[in-house]
Amino acid sequence: MFSLLMKEKLYLNEVVFGTAFGIIIGPHAGNIFDPRSWNPSTGSQSITLEVMRIVLATGLFAIGIELPKNYMWKHAKSLSAMVIPTMAAGWLIVGGILEALFPNLTFVSCLAIAACLTPTDPIICAAIVGGKFAVKHVPVNLRRILLAESAANDGLAYPFLSISIYLTVESSKRVAFGKWFLVGWLYQVILGVVLGIVMGLLFSYLIQLSKRRGFIDRESYVAQYIAMSFFTIGIAHTIGSDDLLAAFAAGSAMSWDGHFNEQTEGEVFASVIDLVLNCACFIYIGAWLPFEDFNIPSLGIVPWKLLVLFISTAFLRRILPMMLLYKWIPEIGSWREALFCGHFGPMGVGAVFISTLALTELPTPHNPPQNQEELLALCIQPVVAFVVLGSIIIRSYYLHLFICTRNRATLRETSKQTFNFLQ
Protein backbone atom coordinates (compact mmCIF):
# COMPACT_ATOMS: atom_id res chain seq x y z
CA MET A 1 0.00 0.00 0.00
CA PHE A 2 2.97 2.34 0.50
CA SER A 3 5.36 1.00 -2.12
CA LEU A 4 5.10 3.98 -4.48
CA LEU A 5 5.73 6.47 -1.68
CA MET A 6 8.75 4.52 -0.49
CA LYS A 7 10.17 4.14 -3.99
CA GLU A 8 9.61 7.75 -5.03
CA LYS A 9 10.62 9.45 -1.76
CA LEU A 10 13.07 7.12 0.00
CA TYR A 11 14.28 5.29 -3.13
CA LEU A 12 13.83 1.86 -1.56
CA ASN A 13 12.60 -1.15 -3.54
CA GLU A 14 10.87 -4.47 -3.00
CA VAL A 15 14.17 -6.13 -2.07
CA VAL A 16 14.39 -4.18 1.20
CA PHE A 17 10.63 -4.39 1.82
CA GLY A 18 10.53 -8.14 1.34
CA THR A 19 13.59 -8.88 3.46
CA ALA A 20 12.40 -6.65 6.32
CA PHE A 21 8.95 -8.25 6.27
CA GLY A 22 10.51 -11.72 6.21
CA ILE A 23 12.61 -10.87 9.28
CA ILE A 24 9.52 -9.51 11.08
CA ILE A 25 7.42 -12.64 10.49
CA GLY A 26 10.40 -15.00 10.74
CA PRO A 27 11.49 -17.15 13.69
CA HIS A 28 13.58 -14.37 15.26
CA ALA A 29 10.67 -11.94 15.59
CA GLY A 30 7.03 -12.90 15.01
CA ASN A 31 7.76 -16.63 14.57
CA ILE A 32 4.99 -16.93 12.00
CA PHE A 33 7.06 -18.16 9.07
CA ASP A 34 10.08 -20.44 9.55
CA PRO A 35 11.33 -22.09 6.34
CA ARG A 36 14.12 -23.92 8.18
CA SER A 37 11.54 -25.92 10.18
CA TRP A 38 9.89 -27.45 7.09
CA ASN A 39 12.47 -30.18 6.66
CA PRO A 40 14.55 -30.45 9.86
CA SER A 41 16.56 -33.47 8.66
CA THR A 42 18.25 -31.44 5.91
CA GLY A 43 17.76 -27.94 7.31
CA SER A 44 15.33 -27.13 4.46
CA GLN A 45 18.28 -26.95 2.07
CA SER A 46 16.44 -28.63 -0.80
CA ILE A 47 13.48 -26.26 -0.47
CA THR A 48 15.72 -23.20 -0.30
CA LEU A 49 17.69 -24.41 -3.31
CA GLU A 50 14.61 -24.82 -5.49
CA VAL A 51 13.00 -21.53 -4.41
CA MET A 52 16.18 -19.63 -5.29
CA ARG A 53 16.56 -21.60 -8.54
CA ILE A 54 13.07 -20.69 -9.79
CA VAL A 55 13.41 -17.00 -8.94
CA LEU A 56 16.90 -16.76 -10.43
CA ALA A 57 15.99 -18.59 -13.61
CA THR A 58 12.92 -16.43 -14.17
CA GLY A 59 14.94 -13.27 -13.56
CA LEU A 60 17.78 -14.35 -15.85
CA PHE A 61 15.36 -15.33 -18.60
CA ALA A 62 13.66 -11.93 -18.23
CA ILE A 63 16.97 -10.08 -18.55
CA GLY A 64 17.83 -12.06 -21.68
CA ILE A 65 14.43 -11.32 -23.21
CA GLU A 66 14.46 -7.61 -22.39
CA LEU A 67 17.92 -6.85 -23.77
CA PRO A 68 17.89 -5.34 -27.30
CA LYS A 69 18.18 -7.73 -30.21
CA ASN A 70 21.69 -9.08 -30.90
CA TYR A 71 22.87 -7.35 -27.73
CA MET A 72 25.06 -10.22 -26.52
CA TRP A 73 26.79 -10.46 -29.90
CA LYS A 74 27.34 -6.72 -30.30
CA HIS A 75 28.70 -6.32 -26.77
CA ALA A 76 30.54 -9.62 -26.41
CA LYS A 77 33.93 -7.92 -26.07
CA SER A 78 32.77 -5.62 -23.27
CA LEU A 79 30.99 -8.41 -21.43
CA SER A 80 34.04 -10.66 -21.66
CA ALA A 81 36.20 -7.92 -20.13
CA MET A 82 33.67 -7.22 -17.38
CA VAL A 83 32.71 -10.77 -16.47
CA ILE A 84 35.72 -13.10 -16.62
CA PRO A 85 38.68 -11.06 -15.25
CA THR A 86 36.48 -9.14 -12.80
CA MET A 87 35.00 -12.34 -11.40
CA ALA A 88 38.38 -14.07 -11.19
CA ALA A 89 40.00 -11.09 -9.45
CA GLY A 90 37.09 -10.67 -7.05
CA TRP A 91 37.11 -14.39 -6.27
CA LEU A 92 40.79 -14.32 -5.30
CA ILE A 93 40.46 -11.04 -3.39
CA VAL A 94 37.53 -12.25 -1.29
CA GLY A 95 39.28 -15.59 -0.75
CA GLY A 96 42.32 -13.76 0.59
CA ILE A 97 40.18 -11.63 2.92
CA LEU A 98 38.45 -14.75 4.24
CA GLU A 99 41.75 -16.51 4.86
CA ALA A 100 43.04 -13.52 6.85
CA LEU A 101 39.87 -13.35 8.97
CA PHE A 102 39.24 -17.08 9.41
CA PRO A 103 42.61 -18.84 9.79
CA ASN A 104 40.94 -22.13 10.72
CA LEU A 105 39.74 -22.39 7.10
CA THR A 106 42.18 -23.39 4.36
CA PHE A 107 42.59 -21.13 1.34
CA VAL A 108 40.66 -23.61 -0.81
CA SER A 109 37.75 -23.54 1.64
CA CYS A 110 37.91 -19.74 1.59
CA LEU A 111 37.71 -19.83 -2.20
CA ALA A 112 34.56 -21.97 -1.96
CA ILE A 113 32.91 -19.31 0.20
CA ALA A 114 34.29 -16.57 -2.06
CA ALA A 115 32.66 -18.28 -5.06
CA CYS A 116 29.27 -17.64 -3.43
CA LEU A 117 30.07 -13.94 -3.03
CA THR A 118 31.65 -13.40 -6.45
CA PRO A 119 28.65 -13.01 -8.80
CA THR A 120 26.53 -9.86 -8.96
CA ASP A 121 22.95 -10.71 -8.06
CA PRO A 122 20.69 -10.26 -11.12
CA ILE A 123 17.49 -9.93 -9.08
CA ILE A 124 18.71 -7.01 -6.96
CA CYS A 125 20.45 -5.57 -10.01
CA ALA A 126 17.24 -5.59 -12.05
CA ALA A 127 15.27 -4.13 -9.14
CA ILE A 128 17.74 -1.25 -8.73
CA VAL A 129 18.82 -0.28 -12.25
CA GLY A 130 15.31 -0.91 -13.58
CA GLY A 131 13.72 1.59 -11.19
CA LYS A 132 12.53 5.06 -12.20
CA PHE A 133 15.38 6.77 -10.37
CA ALA A 134 18.04 4.74 -12.18
CA VAL A 135 16.27 5.17 -15.54
CA LYS A 136 16.40 8.93 -15.00
CA HIS A 137 19.97 9.25 -13.74
CA VAL A 138 21.97 6.24 -15.01
CA PRO A 139 22.93 6.17 -18.71
CA VAL A 140 21.17 3.45 -20.64
CA ASN A 141 24.46 1.91 -21.78
CA LEU A 142 25.49 1.34 -18.16
CA ARG A 143 22.12 -0.07 -17.15
CA ARG A 144 22.13 -2.59 -19.97
CA ILE A 145 25.73 -3.70 -19.53
CA LEU A 146 25.24 -4.13 -15.77
CA LEU A 147 22.11 -6.22 -16.32
CA ALA A 148 23.83 -8.41 -18.90
CA GLU A 149 26.92 -8.78 -16.71
CA SER A 150 24.90 -9.73 -13.64
CA ALA A 151 23.04 -12.39 -15.62
CA ALA A 152 26.19 -13.85 -17.19
CA ASN A 153 28.36 -13.95 -14.09
CA ASP A 154 25.65 -15.51 -11.94
CA GLY A 155 25.67 -18.59 -14.12
CA LEU A 156 29.47 -18.58 -14.32
CA ALA A 157 29.74 -18.92 -10.55
CA TYR A 158 29.49 -22.71 -11.06
CA PRO A 159 33.12 -23.19 -12.23
CA PHE A 160 34.50 -21.10 -9.37
CA LEU A 161 32.51 -23.10 -6.85
CA SER A 162 33.15 -26.48 -8.44
CA ILE A 163 36.96 -26.20 -8.49
CA SER A 164 36.92 -25.22 -4.81
CA ILE A 165 34.62 -28.09 -3.89
CA TYR A 166 36.57 -30.64 -5.95
CA LEU A 167 39.86 -29.57 -4.37
CA THR A 168 38.22 -29.90 -0.95
CA VAL A 169 36.58 -33.30 -1.29
CA GLU A 170 38.90 -35.04 -3.76
CA SER A 171 42.15 -36.58 -2.51
CA SER A 172 43.97 -35.99 -5.81
CA LYS A 173 44.44 -32.56 -7.41
CA ARG A 174 44.67 -34.25 -10.81
CA VAL A 175 41.22 -35.77 -10.35
CA ALA A 176 39.87 -32.45 -9.06
CA PHE A 177 41.10 -30.46 -12.07
CA GLY A 178 39.98 -33.20 -14.45
CA LYS A 179 36.44 -33.11 -13.07
CA TRP A 180 36.50 -29.33 -13.08
CA PHE A 181 37.32 -29.21 -16.79
CA LEU A 182 35.05 -32.04 -17.92
CA VAL A 183 32.10 -31.47 -15.59
CA GLY A 184 32.44 -27.85 -14.50
CA TRP A 185 33.20 -26.31 -17.89
CA LEU A 186 32.31 -28.69 -20.71
CA TYR A 187 29.20 -30.33 -19.28
CA GLN A 188 27.77 -27.62 -17.06
CA VAL A 189 28.77 -24.28 -18.59
CA ILE A 190 29.25 -24.95 -22.31
CA LEU A 191 26.47 -27.51 -22.62
CA GLY A 192 24.16 -25.24 -20.61
CA VAL A 193 24.80 -22.30 -22.94
CA VAL A 194 24.39 -24.41 -26.09
CA LEU A 195 21.22 -26.00 -24.73
CA GLY A 196 19.75 -22.60 -23.88
CA ILE A 197 20.59 -21.13 -27.29
CA VAL A 198 19.13 -24.10 -29.17
CA MET A 199 15.94 -24.10 -27.10
CA GLY A 200 15.56 -20.33 -27.39
CA LEU A 201 16.03 -20.27 -31.18
CA LEU A 202 13.78 -23.28 -31.69
CA PHE A 203 11.05 -21.82 -29.52
CA SER A 204 11.37 -18.44 -31.27
CA TYR A 205 10.92 -20.15 -34.64
CA LEU A 206 7.90 -22.13 -33.44
CA ILE A 207 6.20 -19.14 -31.87
CA GLN A 208 6.70 -17.04 -35.03
CA LEU A 209 5.31 -19.90 -37.12
CA SER A 210 2.25 -20.04 -34.86
CA LYS A 211 1.86 -16.28 -35.16
CA ARG A 212 1.95 -16.35 -38.97
CA ARG A 213 -0.67 -19.08 -39.07
CA GLY A 214 -2.93 -17.37 -36.55
CA PHE A 215 -2.55 -20.02 -33.85
CA ILE A 216 -1.47 -17.68 -31.02
CA ASP A 217 -2.67 -14.33 -29.69
CA ARG A 218 -0.77 -11.50 -28.01
CA GLU A 219 -1.74 -12.52 -24.48
CA SER A 220 -0.31 -16.01 -24.95
CA TYR A 221 3.13 -14.58 -25.68
CA VAL A 222 3.47 -13.50 -22.07
CA ALA A 223 2.29 -16.89 -20.83
CA GLN A 224 4.99 -18.53 -22.96
CA TYR A 225 7.50 -16.19 -21.29
CA ILE A 226 6.99 -17.91 -17.93
CA ALA A 227 6.51 -21.41 -19.34
CA MET A 228 9.71 -21.28 -21.40
CA SER A 229 11.87 -20.20 -18.44
CA PHE A 230 10.55 -23.10 -16.32
CA PHE A 231 10.89 -25.56 -19.21
CA THR A 232 14.50 -24.52 -19.87
CA ILE A 233 15.68 -24.91 -16.29
CA GLY A 234 13.77 -28.19 -16.04
CA ILE A 235 15.60 -29.69 -19.01
CA ALA A 236 18.99 -28.29 -17.99
CA HIS A 237 18.66 -29.41 -14.37
CA THR A 238 17.51 -32.87 -15.42
CA ILE A 239 20.66 -33.49 -17.46
CA GLY A 240 22.86 -31.80 -14.84
CA SER A 241 24.06 -28.75 -16.81
CA ASP A 242 24.12 -25.09 -15.75
CA ASP A 243 20.42 -24.24 -15.62
CA LEU A 244 20.99 -20.55 -14.83
CA LEU A 245 23.18 -19.95 -17.88
CA ALA A 246 20.73 -22.01 -19.94
CA ALA A 247 17.85 -19.75 -18.87
CA PHE A 248 19.77 -16.58 -19.72
CA ALA A 249 20.95 -18.01 -23.05
CA ALA A 250 17.41 -19.09 -23.93
CA GLY A 251 16.03 -15.63 -23.16
CA SER A 252 18.75 -13.95 -25.21
CA ALA A 253 18.19 -16.34 -28.14
CA MET A 254 14.42 -15.80 -28.09
CA SER A 255 14.88 -12.03 -28.40
CA TRP A 256 17.70 -12.30 -30.95
CA ASP A 257 15.64 -10.90 -33.84
CA GLY A 258 13.46 -8.63 -31.71
CA HIS A 259 10.18 -10.38 -32.64
CA PHE A 260 9.29 -11.47 -29.12
CA ASN A 261 10.01 -7.98 -27.72
CA GLU A 262 7.75 -6.38 -30.32
CA GLN A 263 4.86 -8.70 -29.50
CA THR A 264 5.12 -8.20 -25.73
CA GLU A 265 5.86 -4.46 -25.78
CA GLY A 266 3.67 -2.64 -23.30
CA GLU A 267 2.58 -5.81 -21.50
CA VAL A 268 2.87 -5.58 -17.71
CA PHE A 269 1.94 -9.14 -16.76
CA ALA A 270 5.52 -10.38 -16.91
CA SER A 271 6.67 -7.47 -14.74
CA VAL A 272 3.96 -8.27 -12.22
CA ILE A 273 5.03 -11.92 -12.10
CA ASP A 274 8.66 -10.88 -11.58
CA LEU A 275 7.65 -8.50 -8.80
CA VAL A 276 5.58 -11.15 -7.02
CA LEU A 277 8.33 -13.76 -7.28
CA ASN A 278 10.98 -11.29 -6.10
CA CYS A 279 8.93 -10.14 -3.13
CA ALA A 280 8.15 -13.73 -2.12
CA CYS A 281 11.80 -14.70 -2.51
CA PHE A 282 13.14 -11.92 -0.30
CA ILE A 283 10.45 -12.55 2.31
CA TYR A 284 11.74 -16.13 2.30
CA ILE A 285 15.35 -14.92 2.62
CA GLY A 286 14.41 -12.60 5.50
CA ALA A 287 12.85 -15.48 7.42
CA TRP A 288 15.67 -17.84 6.41
CA LEU A 289 18.55 -15.66 7.68
CA PRO A 290 20.37 -17.56 10.48
CA PHE A 291 20.91 -14.73 12.97
CA GLU A 292 21.88 -17.17 15.71
CA ASP A 293 24.79 -18.40 13.57
CA PHE A 294 26.39 -14.96 13.26
CA ASN A 295 28.20 -15.56 16.54
CA ILE A 296 29.83 -19.00 16.83
CA PRO A 297 33.23 -18.39 18.48
CA SER A 298 34.11 -22.10 18.37
CA LEU A 299 34.15 -21.87 14.55
CA GLY A 300 35.86 -18.48 14.50
CA ILE A 301 32.64 -16.72 13.44
CA VAL A 302 32.12 -13.53 15.43
CA PRO A 303 30.20 -10.37 14.47
CA TRP A 304 33.21 -8.07 14.11
CA LYS A 305 34.89 -10.44 11.65
CA LEU A 306 31.71 -10.66 9.59
CA LEU A 307 31.41 -6.88 9.56
CA VAL A 308 35.03 -6.47 8.45
CA LEU A 309 34.43 -9.07 5.75
CA PHE A 310 31.38 -7.25 4.43
CA ILE A 311 33.08 -3.84 4.34
CA SER A 312 36.23 -5.25 2.74
CA THR A 313 34.22 -7.17 0.18
CA ALA A 314 32.15 -4.11 -0.70
CA PHE A 315 35.20 -1.95 -1.41
CA LEU A 316 37.76 -4.42 -2.76
CA ARG A 317 35.85 -7.11 -4.63
CA ARG A 318 35.05 -5.22 -7.85
CA ILE A 319 36.26 -1.63 -7.72
CA LEU A 320 39.97 -2.25 -8.36
CA PRO A 321 39.49 -4.70 -11.29
CA MET A 322 36.89 -2.43 -12.87
CA MET A 323 39.09 0.66 -12.59
CA LEU A 324 41.91 -1.22 -14.31
CA LEU A 325 39.73 -2.64 -17.10
CA TYR A 326 37.25 0.11 -17.95
CA LYS A 327 39.34 1.52 -20.84
CA TRP A 328 38.66 -1.76 -22.71
CA ILE A 329 34.91 -1.40 -22.16
CA PRO A 330 33.38 1.15 -24.58
CA GLU A 331 30.13 1.36 -22.60
CA ILE A 332 32.02 2.87 -19.66
CA GLY A 333 33.04 6.36 -20.64
CA SER A 334 34.89 7.71 -17.59
CA TRP A 335 36.55 6.72 -14.35
CA ARG A 336 33.44 7.90 -12.47
CA GLU A 337 31.29 5.44 -14.39
CA ALA A 338 33.93 2.75 -13.81
CA LEU A 339 33.84 3.52 -10.08
CA PHE A 340 30.06 3.26 -10.17
CA CYS A 341 30.18 -0.10 -11.96
CA GLY A 342 32.85 -1.33 -9.58
CA HIS A 343 30.87 -0.28 -6.54
CA PHE A 344 27.74 -1.84 -8.00
CA GLY A 345 27.91 -5.48 -7.01
CA PRO A 346 24.89 -6.48 -4.90
CA MET A 347 24.78 -9.98 -3.43
CA GLY A 348 21.48 -11.70 -2.73
CA VAL A 349 19.53 -14.55 -4.28
CA GLY A 350 22.50 -15.84 -6.27
CA ALA A 351 24.74 -16.01 -3.20
CA VAL A 352 22.10 -17.91 -1.22
CA PHE A 353 21.59 -20.29 -4.13
CA ILE A 354 25.30 -21.00 -4.66
CA SER A 355 25.96 -21.50 -0.93
CA THR A 356 23.02 -23.90 -0.66
CA LEU A 357 24.22 -25.73 -3.75
CA ALA A 358 27.66 -26.06 -2.14
CA LEU A 359 26.11 -27.72 0.91
CA THR A 360 24.61 -30.41 -1.32
CA GLU A 361 28.15 -31.29 -2.43
CA LEU A 362 29.64 -31.35 1.07
CA PRO A 363 29.26 -34.03 3.77
CA THR A 364 26.76 -33.59 6.59
CA PRO A 365 28.81 -31.96 9.36
CA HIS A 366 29.22 -33.05 12.96
CA ASN A 367 29.46 -30.56 15.78
CA PRO A 368 32.33 -30.06 16.39
CA PRO A 369 33.49 -30.69 12.80
CA GLN A 370 35.78 -33.66 12.18
CA ASN A 371 37.65 -32.32 9.14
CA GLN A 372 37.99 -29.33 6.80
CA GLU A 373 35.01 -30.40 4.66
CA GLU A 374 32.69 -30.39 7.67
CA LEU A 375 34.10 -27.08 8.91
CA LEU A 376 33.38 -25.54 5.51
CA ALA A 377 29.84 -26.93 5.60
CA LEU A 378 29.23 -25.29 8.97
CA CYS A 379 30.76 -21.93 8.07
CA ILE A 380 29.62 -21.28 4.52
CA GLN A 381 26.02 -20.22 5.05
CA PRO A 382 26.44 -18.02 8.17
CA VAL A 383 29.22 -16.08 6.41
CA VAL A 384 27.31 -15.76 3.14
CA ALA A 385 24.04 -14.88 4.89
CA PHE A 386 25.62 -12.00 6.82
CA VAL A 387 27.17 -10.50 3.68
CA VAL A 388 23.86 -10.90 1.82
CA LEU A 389 22.00 -9.10 4.61
CA GLY A 390 24.51 -6.25 4.57
CA SER A 391 24.36 -6.02 0.79
CA ILE A 392 20.57 -5.84 0.78
CA ILE A 393 20.57 -3.06 3.37
CA ILE A 394 23.38 -0.96 1.91
CA ARG A 395 23.32 -1.48 -1.84
CA SER A 396 19.61 -0.92 -2.37
CA TYR A 397 19.73 2.57 -0.87
CA TYR A 398 23.33 3.77 -1.04
CA LEU A 399 23.37 3.15 -4.79
CA HIS A 400 20.88 5.94 -5.33
CA LEU A 401 22.89 8.38 -3.23
CA PHE A 402 25.98 7.38 -5.18
CA ILE A 403 24.20 8.19 -8.42
CA CYS A 404 23.20 11.56 -6.99
CA THR A 405 26.83 12.52 -6.46
CA ARG A 406 27.21 12.73 -10.23
CA ASN A 407 25.03 15.83 -10.05
CA ARG A 408 25.02 18.16 -7.04
CA ALA A 409 21.65 19.62 -7.91
CA THR A 410 20.14 16.16 -8.02
CA LEU A 411 21.72 15.36 -4.66
CA ARG A 412 20.25 18.47 -3.06
CA GLU A 413 16.85 17.79 -4.58
CA THR A 414 16.87 14.14 -3.45
CA SER A 415 17.96 15.02 0.09
CA LYS A 416 15.27 17.71 0.34
CA GLN A 417 12.53 15.35 -0.88
CA THR A 418 13.60 12.62 1.53
CA PHE A 419 13.74 15.06 4.48
CA ASN A 420 10.29 16.51 3.68
CA PHE A 421 8.82 13.03 3.37
CA LEU A 422 10.25 11.91 6.72
CA GLN A 423 8.82 15.03 8.38
UniProtKB/TrEMBL annotation:
Keywords: Antiport, Ion transport, Membrane, Sodium, Sodium transport, Transmembrane, Transmembrane helix, Transport. GO terms for molecular function: sodium:proton antiporter activity. Residues 5-394 form the Cation/H+ exchanger transmembrane domain. One of its GO terms (biological process) is intracellular potassium ion homeostasis. Pfam families: Na_H_Exchanger (PF00999). It is found in: Membrane. The chain crosses the membrane at residues 12-30, 50-67, 79-98, 104-130, 185-207, 268-289, 301-326, 338-360, 375-398. This is Sodium/hydrogen exchanger. It comes from Lentinula aciculospora.
